[in-house]
Write a structure and sequence with these properties.
Layout: H1 12-22, E1 26-29, H2 36-43, E2 47-52, H3 55-66, H4 74-85, H5 93-100, H6 107-124, H7 130-143, E3 178-182, H8 185-188, E4 195-200, H9 209-212, H10 214-221, E5 227-228, E6 233-234, H11 252-262, E7 265-273, H12 280-287, E8 292-301, H13 304-308, E9 310-311, E10 317-319, E11 325-334, H14 336-345
Parallel strand pairs: 1-2, 1-4, 2-3, 4-7
Antiparallel strand pairs: 5-6, 7-11, 8-11, 9-10
Helix pairs in contact: 1-2, 1-14, 3-7, 5-6, 6-7
The structure holds S-adenosylmethionine.
S-adenosylmethionine (SAM) binds next to helix 2, strand 2 and helix 8.
C-alpha cells in the first residue's frame, strides 16, 4: 500500500468486524483512497463497490476490487512484471519534472519510471494487465520516494529508501467480486443499487488529495502537464474542477448530510477525525436520520508527516509538527436492533 494521508490502516480490523457483525453481503466504500477498507470487505466475502475521485484510486480499485484473482492468470502478470523490470532506463518528462527540477525520486529511479510507464502504455493499454501493472509501478515508486508521504514537498536530504533501485512486484490480486467507479460520491451514491453496508471516510480538511498526490495523478494520466511552484504540481491543481465539497469547511456539513441522505444502505459507517471540522455531537446528529447511532472512539498515532513537519525546496520548515496522537470517531447508524447487535459484537 502507498503512504496515504487519512489511510485507515489501523482501523481496518475494526471496520472488518463491524461489517461482519452487520451480516453484509454487499458493501460500498465511497472514499476508497488506497482501497484498503474495500479490500478488507472483499476478503470477508462481500461484493464491494469502491468509489473515489482520484485516478490512481480508480487504478487501485480496478486492480484489487474489480479483478477476480480466480479469473486472472498470475503467470501472465508476473511475466509482464519481469518484462517491465528489464526496461532500459530513459530520461523523459517524469525524470526531468520530479527528479531533476524537483527531488521526489533519485534520477536513476525516475529514468526507470519513465521507461516502464511508456512500456505499460504502448504494450498493455486495453489489456486486463494495464491497471495491475500501473498499481505495481505506483507501489514501487512509493517505496523509493523522498517525501514524508504527501507530494506538497520533498525532503531536503534524500531519504534512505530513495537510494534503493525501483523494482516492480506482484500487487497480489484478490479473489471475489467488486466494482470500481471514479466519481464524486455525492453524484455516484444515489444512483447505486442498495447495499447492505456503506462506509464513508471523507477528507478531514481543506487539503485536496488531487494536490497532495499530484504525482500519482500524473503517473496514471501520463499527460505530461505543465507544472508550477516549488512542488511542481500540475497546473490544473489550481482549477476548480478538482475541488471537493468535502474540502470546504462551510460546505462540508451540508455535503455529508446530502450524501447520508442519498446513499441507499442498511447500515451506515462513518469515520471522522476528532481534530477536524465536526464535533462528535454534530456527527451523531448528522447520522441520526439513519436510525440508532453508536460511536467507537479509536485513539491512534498521527500520520508521520505531521510529526516531522513539512519542508520547502530550500529545506526550510513550512509546516510545524502536530500532536502525536489523535482520535478517530467511528459512527455506526441504522436500524436499532442491528446496530445494537454490531455494538455488542465489537463490545462498545
Ligand atoms: C480520508 S481519504 C480515504 C482513505 C481511505 N479510506 C483509505 O483507507 O485509503 C479521503 C478520500 O476521499 C477522496 N475524495 C475526496 N472528495 C471526494 C468526493 N467528492 N467523492 C469521492 N471521493 C472523494 C479523496 O481522493 C481521498 O482518497
Amino acid at each position: 500500500m502507498i503512504k496515504y494521508l487519512g489511510s485507515k490502516r489501523t482501523l481496518v480490523p475494526l471496520l472488518g468486524e463491524i461489517a461482519s457483525a452487520s451480516g453484509a453481503a454487499t458493501a460500498l466504500d465511497l472514499f476508497t483512497g488506497t482501497t484498503r477498507v474495500a479490500r478488507k470487505f472483499k476478503e470477508l466475502g462481500m461484493t464491494v463497490t469502491a468509489v473515489d475521485t482520484a485516478s490512481y484510486s480508480e487504478v487501485f480499485a480496478k486492480t484489487w476490487i474489480e479483478l477476480d484473482a480466480n479469473e486472472c492468470s498470475v503467470i501472465e502478470l508476473t511475466d509482464a512484471i519481469a518484462h517491465l523490470n528489464g526496461a532500459e532506463p530513459v530520461s523523459g518528462y517524469f525524470t526531468k519534472t520530479f527528479c531533476e527540477d524537483a527531488r521526489y525520486f533519485q534520477p536513476a529511479n525516475g529514468e526507470r519510471i519513465d521507461a516502464i510507464r511508456n512500456m505499460i502504455e504502448s504494450e498493455y493499454r486495453g489489456s486486463w494487465l494495464y491497471e495491475p501493472l500501473l498499481t505495481s509501478l505506483i507501489l514501487a515508486a512509493d517505496r523509493v520516494d523522498s517525501t514524508t508521504g504527501i507530494q506538497m514537498a520533498y525532503l531536503k536530504q534524500w531519504s534512505k529508501r530513495s537510494y534503493t533501485a525501483l523494482k516492480l512486484t506482484d500487487p497480489g490480486l484478490l479473489p471475489g467480486r467488486g466494482f470500481a467507479l471514479r466519481g464524486d460520491a455525492l453524484e455516484v451514491a444515489p444512483k447505486l443499487p442498495a447495499a447492505d453496508l456503506a462506509y464513508l471516510d471523507p477528507p478531514y480538511n481543506q487539503h485536496r488529495y488531487f494536490a497532495n498526490y499530484h504525482i500519482w495523478e500524473t503517473l496514471v494520466r501520463w499527460d505530461a502537464p505543465e507544472v508550477y511552484g516549488i512542488a511542481n504540481k500540475r497546473t490544473d491543481v489550481r482549477e476548480g474542477d478538482h475541488r471537493s465539497r468535502f474540502n470546504s469547511k462551510p460546505d462540508m456539513p451540508r455535503a455529508i448530510r446530502e450524501l447520508i441522505d442519498g446513499v441507499n444502505c442498511q447500515t451506515l459507517v462513518l469515520s471522522y477525525n476528532n481534530e477536524s471540522w465536526l464535533t462528535k455531537e454534530e456527527l451523531i446528529a448528522i447520522c441520526e436520520p439513519r436510525g440508532h447511532v453508536e460511536v467507537v472512539d479509536v485513539d491512534f498515532k498521527r500520520y508521520i508527516g505531521s510529526q516531522i513537519g513539512v519542508f520547502n525546496k530550500a529545506g526550510e520548515r513550512v509546516g510545524n509538527p502536530g500532536a502525536k496522537r489523535n482520535t478517530e470517531h467511528v459512527l455506526i447508524a441504522g436500524e436499532r436492533k442491528l446496530v445494537n447487535k454490531i455494538a455488542n459484537r465489537i463490545k462498545i
